[in-house]
Structures are given as C-alpha cells and as structure tokens.
C-alpha cells in the first residue's frame, strides 16, 4: 500500500522550552525568573520540584544536538531564557548570549534549523516585581530584549517566534494562579492579555528592524470549543465565552486589528478596555510570516455545575482561568485520556487548522507543539516502549495531513517534547518526551516513539494505515 506523503520541504522537528530543560538556574549571570520564585511557593508545584537541574540541557547541549541529528530532525524549536540574556530585565549578559550562540552554531553544524522562541513564560522576577505583564512598560522591555537576541543570533537564525501561548501567561499566570507568577486576580489577567499582545507587536517591529529577512510569527494554543448540548442556550453561551477567551481574543487583534466586541463586553467588568491606547492595535496587527499552532485537545463545555469538585491532592488553592466564565464546566465524553487527563481528540487538530484557513488571512502554519504525557519507564531490555504516545502522534499527524488535503498551508510539525522535562506545575511527574530522561543520572534513552518519528521524518511520510 502507498504511504501518506507530506509536501516537499515539510519541516520535521521537536521542541523544548528553556526553563523546562536547561537547569543551571544560577549559572553564568542568570538571575531569577518568575518560575524560580513560583517553585518556592508551598503546594505550587507537584513534589516541590524546581527547574534545577531539569534535563541539564545547559551543560549537555552538544550531546542533545547530536541526539537530534541521530534522529534525523530537520529543526529544533527552543526558547531563550530572558533572565539569562538580560538578567533582572536590565543590562545584557554576554555569557548568556554566548550559550545560545554556541547552541545555534552546533545545530547548524549538524544541519538542524534553529527555531527561536523569545518568550516561553520565564519573565525576569525583577520585572514581575514592577507589575509583570500587568505593567505596560514590560511590553517595551520585551522589545529591548528581542532586539538584543536578534542582534546576537539573527545572522544565523531565520525563524522567530515572539510569544509562546500568551493565553497561559495571562490566564494561568494572573487569573487562576496555576502557573507563575501565581496571581489570582481577574483584573490583572485582563491587563496581561493586552500587554502581552502589545509586547508581541513591539517585538515584531524590533526583529524586522534588525533583520528584515527574518521570518516572524507567534505561537497560540488553540482549541475547538464544543458545547455539551448544542440546543441549550446556556451551553452555547459557555462555548462562545470560552472561544472568545481562548482563541478570538488573540486571533482577532493579530489578524483583524480589533478585539471581538462580545469578548470586550465580557471583560469590561475587569477593566479590559482601559489598557488599550490609540494605535496599539496597529502595532499588534503587524504582518506576520507564519503562525505557530499548539494543539493538545478540544474543550467540551457546559454551563451546568460539575458533578463533583476537583480534588486538590495537597496542591495550593487556585481559581478558574476563565474570567467572566467561571461557571463553565468540562464534562467527560468518555474519551481516552493522557496522563495529563486531557482527552485524546485528533479531529480537533483538523478543526483548528481548517478554521484558521477559512476565517483568517492565509499564511503558512506550523504545528509548533503536539504530543502527550504517558507513564513510561526504561524496561528490562533497556528500551522505553510507549505505544500510546506513538499512536497519539500518528493519529494527529493523520489529522494534519487531512487538513493539508483540505487546502491548509501547513508546513511543519514539532513534537512536544524532545525530551522529558520539568512540566511546569506538574514538576517531573509528567513525561511528554520522545526521549526518556533519567533525572538521577541524566541518561537519555530514545523511546519507541522517537525511533518511529525518526522514520517518519526521514521518509516525509506516514504508513498507509494507522499504527493502531
């Protein structure tokens, strides 16, 4: 049977984030980020885990690049640690820049394209002390930081992402308190949304000024929002509210130079509009070269109360991230779930990609994160057998290919993640990697999914039939 081939030049990569893999949290002039501080809050992170030593990527970077080359990856999506490059948000730290310069050179030497994300949630704590993303000034400090990094790496790096998942930064960081900085203030979350987007727009301008030839984008985590009862007006309104907060509040200003009117109305109790100044939206909507899409699951939502409150399991109390829609619940559909308790729904990826194609300006799309956490370990044979993860990636790649057949200009896929790492508030309890990391020895072991993914990348194709 014929295989399912992807377009010529399709990019096959894997992704990480600085705080999740680097470790070395005080090395070579790096100062504290909001995540270093958050990890010290009792009950904030499972097991009291911290970002030290994570996957020790800072000291094992050459080994990790060689591993990527062995797997045949075309590209490596990684993020820059802001507090490593401009500690405390202030003066440039050359030692930090030198680390990333060495990483870029090592990647290029192995024929691997570096894809740089400027912000993957590790705001310098000193800037948070001045208000963080609730403070408009942080957007301007981000532009300065972007200019610094592009000035150092832009002669070798073509593909740039300003922000990764601003939804998480704003709503998990400032509304629910699940992520750093751990605040539970709806008004702060509303301010953070706009200032993150403003920072993105200012960052785009800084990149283009330094390197006009750069390819610039942003990465959004997008989810189809499905009402539990499509005949129930309350469930329909719940879906509208969440679609506004998850998807349209970012897509519309980026690509239509406006915030959705219904979302603005929903957020008025939290003072959203007062943060928007003249010309902000023209800055935010600066033309982009590509859009990154992170996809993990759909949101199946209802306005009906949950059957039982979620267990805290010793975690610190948190709030709903859905400001103005705190009543919305997420009933089960009985679908298979990952170790993160997220539904496995590959068709949702198809829906996201087609929606972008049909409703927004058409520009190249890249799946910049997709993957799953499962409980796996090194077996007696020395291998890591993870058929559930392999099946997850396979099924989502088939959904992505279906979107390409439907006309979507999808140009690449980055598995999340290259290796097991510090999974934010879950600490080291969840493993997303296609490469297993023994946190005691830091030994890397490619999992069965990595070997399979390597064959897909080298062949630019899937088998004609699904793996299961």
From TrEMBL:
GO molecular function annotation: beta-glucosidase activity
Presence of keyword Metal-binding: no
Positions contributing to substrate binding: 20, 120, 164, 296, 416, 423-424
Gene3D superfamilies listed in its UniProt record: Glycosidases
Keyword Transferase: no
Pfam families the record matches: Glyco_hydro_1 (PF00232)
Family: Belongs to the glycosyl hydrolase 1 family.
Protein name: Beta-glucosidase
Source organism per UniProt: Saccharothrix coeruleofusca
Encoding gene per record: bglB
């Amino acid at each position: 049977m014929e295989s399912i081939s992807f377009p010529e030049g399709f990019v096959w990569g894997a992704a990480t984030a600085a705080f999740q893999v680097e470790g070395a949290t005080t090395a070579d002039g790096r100062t504290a980020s909001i995540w270093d501080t958050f990890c010290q809050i009792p009950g904030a992170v499972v097991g009291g885990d911290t970002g030290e030593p994570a996957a020790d990527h800072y000291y094992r970077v050459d080994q990790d690049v060689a591993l990527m080359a062995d797997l045949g990856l075309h590209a490596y999506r990684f993020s820059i640690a802001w507090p490593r490059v401009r500690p405390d948000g202030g003066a440039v730290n050359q030692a930090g820049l030198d680390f990333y310069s060495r990483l870029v050179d090592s990647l290029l030497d192995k024929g691997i394209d570096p894809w740089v994300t400027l912000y993957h949630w590790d705001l310098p704590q000193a800037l948070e002390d001045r208000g963080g993303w609730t403070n408009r000034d942080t957007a301007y400090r981000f532009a300065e930081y972007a200019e610094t990094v592009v000035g150092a790496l832009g002669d070798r790096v073509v593909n740039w992402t300003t922000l990764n998942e601003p939804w998480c930064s704003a709503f998990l960081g400032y509304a629910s308190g699940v992520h750093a900085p751990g605040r539970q203030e709806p008004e702060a979350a509303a301010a953070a949304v706009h200032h993150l987007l403003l920072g993105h727009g200012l960052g785009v301008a800084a990149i283009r000024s330094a390197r006009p030839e750069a390819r610039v984008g942003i990465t959004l985590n997008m989810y189809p929002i499905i009402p539990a009862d499509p005949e129930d007006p309350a469930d329909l309104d719940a879906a509208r509210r969440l679609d506004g907060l998850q998807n349209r509040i970012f897509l519309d200003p980026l690509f239509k130079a406006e915030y959705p009117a219904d979302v603005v109305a929903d957020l008025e109790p939290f003072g959203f509009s007062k943060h928007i100044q003249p010309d902000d939206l023209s800055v935010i909507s600066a033309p982009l070269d590509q859009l990154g899409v992170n996809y993990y699951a759909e949101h199946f939502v209802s306005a009906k109360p949950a059957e039982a409150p979620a267990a805290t399991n010793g975690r610190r109390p948190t709030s709903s991230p859905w400001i103005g829609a705190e009543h919305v619940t997420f009933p089960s559909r009985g679908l298979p779930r990952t170790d993160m308790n997220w539904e496995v729904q590959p068709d949702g990826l198809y829906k996201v990609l087609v929606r972008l194609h049909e409703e927004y300006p058409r520009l190249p799309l890249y799946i910049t994160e997709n993957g799953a956490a499962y409980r796996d370990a090194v077996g007696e044979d020395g291998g890591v057998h993870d058929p559930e993860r392999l099946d997850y990636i396979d099924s989502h790649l088939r959904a992505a290919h279906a979107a390409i057949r439907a006309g979507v200009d999808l140009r690449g896929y980055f598995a999340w993640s290259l290796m097991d790492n510090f999974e934010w508030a879950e600490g080291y309890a969840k493993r997303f990697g296609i490469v297993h990391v023994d946190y005691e020895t830091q030994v890397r072991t490619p999992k069965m999914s990595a070997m399979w993914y390597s064959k897909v990348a080298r062949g630019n194709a899937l088998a004609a039939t699904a793996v299961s």
